[in-house]
Protein: adenine phosphoribosyltransferase
Amino acid sequence: MSSSPTENLFTIESVKALVKDYPDFPKDGILFKDIFPIFQNHRALDCLLNHMADEAITFSKKLNGSKIDAVVGLDARGFLFGPTLALKLEAKFVPIRKRGKLPGILVSASYEKEYGVDIVEIQADSINQGDNVLIVDDLLATGGTCRAAEDLIKKLGANVVLNQFVIELCELNGRDILEAPIHSVIKY
Structure:
């Protein structure tokens, strides 16, 4: 049985409809947005990744006309989107991880969390001076992790051209602390 082309098309609105809410997870008072149902539908995932890649290309061309050299994924869910976006953008993929998870010579940055300070790291030779970088993660909440990632990339002499998120929790104002432009696919 074949289906018509329109049956196979997903829109960002239909992708958004797959996100599930879990109240009081992982603790009371939190409304958790579960993105994993998107991964259970290959058409939805394809729609999301194509949308993100198209937005990154369009933005990069408008900004300075050059391509994105590196896609940086933030630990850990940025790793779900980053490698595929890097392939689509013909760029390298570079992870930024929590302290103690990467080998080699590292550059680190700290950021404030609700209950203390956390540290993220990047391998010092993973990004070249002058590279145009796309940072990707699943969620923009308070912005602390992404801001630390921007600092790491600047320390390496590269340029963050865009911060990209699947979901943004607008009421937490995370975008206010970020320096580079932001593209969020789904906003709550």
Q: What stands out?
A: Strands lie at 20-23, 31-34, 70-74, 92-98, 106-113, 116-123, 132-140, 159-168, 182-187.
